[in-house]
Design a protein that fits this description.
Distance between the termini: 76 Å
Oligomer: single chain
Strand order of the largest sheet: 8-9-7-6-10-11
Number of helices: 21
Shape: globular
Strand content: 15-25%
Length: 667
C-alpha cells in the first residue's frame, strides 16, 4: 500500500519551546541478534507505540511529499522532525488504506496511489538499518501545540521481520513520563543497542579457549605452540621442568625439547619479558597464531582426590582444575598425547583432547588412492566433447565436464565395461573443466617386462608406469603385504641403472623399528649392521637374479649377483642429514614408520637427477605415537597430491600367494 505523506518542516511549525530531534540511522552489526530480538509482525502490530496525549491536530497547509514504492522488507519511514507529544502510530495495510483518503481531505491534496513502476523497490541490505528515535526532555508539563498531524508511519509490507527501534530514551518530564512503551520492546531495544556498541574484539576474545599443553605434545611437535590459531596457550611450571630434563642428548625428543626452549626464549625477548601479562604468539613470525602464551606464575592450591601430588601428570591435572574453577566462562582444555592422562582428566570432570594437528587425514579411508574409476556412461556424455590425437605410442583424449574437475595431475583413470574396449590412462593436464588423458604402456605383456617382472593387475600396471617414467621424481606406493611394492621398485631401479644407465646406483634405506624386542647391538660396518634389516631386499634380489640369469649356470648367476650387489648401497637413516644424492635411485622401505619430520629430511636429500620411491603398509605401524593419519607416508601422499612430477598408487590386491592374500584379509 502507498505510504501517507510525511509532514515537511514548513507544514509542521513547532513552538519555540520544543526542540527538534533529528533521527539518526545506525547499523546493527549482528543481523541474527536483531532478528532474534525483534517481535513477530502480529505482536508488533498489536502493540502500537503512542506518545503523550496532545490536542487534536489542526489542518495543515498542502504539503508536497515524495512517494516511493514499499521495500521488500519492513522499513522505517521517519519524519524530518519529531516533537515532544507527537503521536507515533503503527499502521497496517488496511488501516493505512482507510486513513489515506482522510488525510488527503484534511490537507487538501489528492492522494495518488504509488505504483511499483514509479520507483523500483530497494533490496533489503545484509545488515538491517533501524532508526533510533529519542525524545527531548521537556521543561513544562503542559502539552505542546502541534499544528500538523506529524506521525511516523510504519508500513507493514509483509516482511518476516518488523523494524524495531535501536534505542529509546524515556523523557524525564511528567508529560514524557506518561509515555506508554511496552516493557518487552524497551528491553529488546536496550539489548540491541548494547550489542551494537560492544567491540567485536571483546566478543572474539570471550569466545577463545584456554589450552593447557602437556609436555609430550611439545616434545612430539615443537611448533605446536603456534597451531591453535586465536586461542590462548597455558604452560604449567612443571612442563618447563620436564622440558629441561629432556633437553640433553641426540635423540629426536631431545632436539624437539631444545627447539621449544629456543621458541620460548624468543617470545620472551620480543615482548620485553612481560610474562605475567602473556606473550603474543605472533611475535616471532607465526601470523596465524593470534592468541597469547601464558605461564604459571603463582602456586595453585587444588587437591585432587585419590591422586598422589608428587607425580608430574597429577600436578598438571591440578593446574587444569584450578584454571577451570578460576575461569568458568572460558573453555579450559587439556591437550595431551598420553591416553591414560586424558582418561584421568575425564574421570575428574575436566576437558581433555588429543593433539591432532599433525594428522594429515582424520581417517585413513580418505587417503588419496591415485586412481579413479570412470562411470559406465562416461563415453555417452562425452561423445560430442572428446578430442583425440596420437603422439608417438600414446593416444591423448581431451575431456570436459564435472568429471574433469575431480581429477588431479598424474592420477590414473580406467574404464571397464562389458562389451566395450577398456581404457587405462593418466591425467597429464587439468585446466578448469577440461582434462587431458594419455594412454599407458601395458606392462602386463611379457615384451614390456621390467627386469623380468610384469604386472599382474591393474594397480601394478599403474605403479610400473610411474616407476619407469623419467619425468616423475617422487613416487609413493602403499598397500598391504604381498602386493609387490619392493619387487617392482627394485626391478624398475635395476632396469634404469644397469640397462638404461639413467641413474648411477640404487640407495636403499628403511626405518630401523623392530616388531618385537630389540636383540641388541649389531656388529660390523654401517652396511653390515643394516643387513638384518634388509631381508626383504635379499629375497627380492634372489628372485630377480634368478629370472635374469636364465640358463647361465652357477657361474653366470654368481656374476649377476655380484654385479647387482655392486650397484646397490644400503644406508642408515641416522646418517642421512647433510647428504646430497645426485643421479641416484633412492628406495625408502617401510616408510609408514617415519615421522613427517623424518620424511622431510629424507626427501630433501635429493639432488639433480635423483628419483625417490617411498613404500609402506599403513596397517603395520610400529613407531609409538604414530597412527595412519599422522604417519610420514600419509603426510607425503597428501602433500604431493597433484604435483606434476610426483605420483601415488595404492595397491589393493596381493600377489604373493593365496595363503598370504587370505591371511591379510581375515587376520
Amino acid at each position: 500500500m502507498p505510504l501517507p505523506p510525511a509532514p515537511s518542516r514548513k507544514a509542521a511549525r513547532i513552538s519555540p519551546e520544543a526542540f527538534e530531534v533529528k533521527a539518526s540511522r545506525k547499523t546493527v552489526t549482528s543481523q541474527q541478534a536483531a532478528e532474534a530480538d525483534s517481535p513477530t509482525p502480529a505482536e508488533w502490530l498489536a502493540e502500537p507505540v503512542t506518545a503523550a496525549s496532545a490536542p487534536a491536530p489542526v489542518a495543515a497547509k498542502p504539503v508536497r511529499s515524495r512517494r516511493r514504492a514499499a521495500a521488500p522488507a519492513a522499513e522505517v519511514v521517519q519524519a524530518e522532525t519529531v516533537a515532544v507529544g507527537t503521536p507515533v502510530v503503527v499502521l497496517d495495510q488496511p488501516a493505512q488504506a482507510a486513513a489515506e483518503p482522510q488525510a488527503a481531505a484534511e490537507t487538501g491534496t489528492q492522494a495518488t496511489p504509488a505504483t511499483p513502476a514509479a520507483k523500483p523497490a530497494r533490496k533489503t541490505p545484509a545488515r538491517k538499518k533501524v532508526a533510533a528515535v529519542s525524545q527531548v526532555v521537556a521543561s513544562s508539563a503542559q502539552p505542546l501545540p502541534v499544528e500538523a498531524a506529524a506521525a511516523v508511519a510504519v508500513a507493514d509490507t509483509g516482511a518476516a521481520t518488523a523494524p524495531t527501534a535501536e534505542a529509546v530514551a524515556s523523557a524525564a518530564s511528567p508529560a514524557a513520563a506518561s509515555t506508554e512503551l511496552p516493557a518487552t520492546e524497551a528491553r529488546q531495544s536496550a539489548r540491541k543497542a548494547k550489542a551494537a556498541i560492544k567491540p567485536r574484539s571483546h566478543q572474539g576474545r570471550a569466545a577463545s579457549c584456554l589450552f593447557v599443553l602437556d609436555t609430550n605434545v611439545l616434545m612430539h611437535d615443537p611448533v605446536s605452540l603456534f597451531r591453535f590459531e586465536e586461542h590462548d596457550i597455558y604452560l604449567p611450571m612443571i612442563v618447563l621442568e620436564e622440558l629441561d630434563g629432556h633437553k640433553k642428548g641426540m635423540t629426536e625428543v631431545a632436539r624437539n625439547a631444545r627447539q621449544v626452549s629456543r621458541s620460548l626464549d624468543q617470545l620472551a625477548a620480543k615482548s620485553g619479558g612481560d610474562i605475567a601479562q602473556g606473550l603474543p604468539l605472533a611475535a616471532i613470525g607465526h601470523k596465524e597464531a593470534t592468541g597469547l602464551l601464558l605461564f604459571q606464575t603463582e602456586p595453585l592450591d587444588v587437591t585432587l582426590p585419590a591422586l598422589p601430588q608428587g607425580k608430574a601428570d597429577n600436578q598438571i591435572l591440578g593446574v587444569v582444575k584450578a584454571l577451570t574453577e578460576r575461569y568458568p566462562e572460558r573453555g579450559v582444555v587439556l591437550v595431551s598425547k598420553d591416553i591414560n592422562m586424558r582418561v584421568k582428566a575425564r574421570a575428574l570432570g575436566l576437558q581433555a583432547e588429543d593433539y591432532e594437528n599433525d594428522k594429515a587425514l582424520a581417517d585413513d579411508e580418505l587417503l588419496y588412492p591415485g586412481w579413479l574409476a570412470l562411470p559406465a556412461d562416461f563415453w555417452t556424455h562425452q561423445s560430442k566433447k572428446v578430442e583425440s590425437w596420437t603422439q608417438g605410442p600414446h593416444t591423448f583424449y581431451r575431456i570436459s565436464g564435472p568429471m574433469a574437475e575431480q581429477m588431479n595431475l598424474n592420477q590414473f583413470v580406467y574404464f571397464e565395461a562389458p562389451g566395450e574396449p577398456a581404457l587405462y590412462a593418466r591425467v597429464t593436464e587439468v585446466r578448469g573443466k577440461t582434462a587431458v588423458l594419455r594412454t599407458l604402456k601395458d606392462y602386463s605383456h611379457l615384451k614390456n617386462a621390467v627386469w623380468g617382472v610384469s604386472s599382474r593387475n591393474r594397480e601394478q600396471n599403474f605403479a610400473l608406469n610411474l616407476l619407469m617414467d623419467p619425468e616423475i621424481d617422487f613416487v609413493t606406493l602403499a598397500g598391504t603385504a604381498g602386493t609387490g611394492k619392493t619387487l617392482m621398485a627394485l626391478a624398475a631401479g635395476l632396469s634404469q641403472v644397469l640397462d638404461e644407465r639413467r641413474y648411477t646406483e640404487i640407495i636403499m634405506t628403511r626405518a630401523t623399528v623392530s616388531v618385537g624386542e630389540d636383540i641388541g647391538f649389531l656388529p660390523g660396518t654401517e652396511e653390515e649392521k643394516m643387513g638384518p634389516w634388509m631381508g626383504a631386499l635379499d629375497d627380492n634380489l634372489e628372485f630377480l637374479a634368478k629370472g635374469e640369469g636364465g640358463n647361465a649356470g652357477e657361474w653366470g648367476r654368481a656374476a649377476t649377483n655380484e654385479l647387482i650387489r655392486s650397484r646397490i648401497k644400503i644406508k642408515s637413516l641416522n646418517f642421512m642429514r647433510g647428504r646430497t644424492f645426485m643421479n641416484k635411485y633412492v628406495i625408502i622401505d617401510e616408510a609408514q614408520n617415519l615421522t613427517p619430520k623424518q620424511m622431510k629430511t629424507l626427501i630433501t636429500r635429493a639432488g639433480p637427477g635423483t628419483k625417490i620411491i617411498c613404500m609402506g603398509n599403513l596397517a603395520q605401524i610400529d613407531t609409538p605415537y604414530l597412527t595412519e593419519g599422522s604417519s610420514g607416508l600419509t603426510y607425503a601422499v597428501d602433500r604431493f597430491k597433484g604435483w606434476p612430477h610426483g605420483g601415488h598408487i595404492t595397491l589393493a590386491r596381493g600377489e604373493r600367494s593365496r595363503l598370504a592374500d587370505y591371511a591379510s584379509d581375515v587376520l
